[in-house]
Amino acid sequence: MSKNAEVSELCTYNIELLKQMSGVIDLLQQQASETFNYAQAVGPHLRHVIEHYSALLNTVQQEGRCIDYDARERNLAIQNVPVVTLAKIQNLIDQFEALAAEPELQPDQPLQTRLRSGLAGEREFIVSTTLARELLFLASHAVHHFALVGHYCNDAVVELGHDFGKAPSTIAFERGEY
Questions:
Q1: So what's the pLDDT on residue 1?
Q2: Number of domains composing the chain
Q3: Is there a domain that residue 120 lies in?
Q4: Pick from 15, 6, 14: which is nearest to 102 by CA?
């Protein structure tokens, strides 16, 4: 596999996850009871994931290329209004499709990420990373939050499927591939 094909494949995986997210919103709008509070249950998780994706996509095209996942917009409209969430997801999909088509991008493209640490965010680190590493992180991060979203959906009696919110390695293990 060429290096650019690797970036394209990682972008495609993240696009698939974003499409899953859109599907969850559609199901909730169709099937959840009127008492289900989207803005309190799943909205915060989806906004959080979306804003992490935005942080990377906004950084990849910048000169300094330092991702700051902590400096998220925290846009409550994304959290509270499903139609706004869906529009933002589509925007991210479009950006990932464009990123996947850029022939000069390499999986080992150097980036940096700024992270706050300590129990109260009192420390700050800037660490070296790569485009591929961050694309994998975002996918894993999304799946982790999907697991939490899945519990809320189960409580709302909205079925998302047996494998929703499971890590790919867990699914492979359950199929006997490990």
A1: 65
A2: 1
A3: no
A4: 6
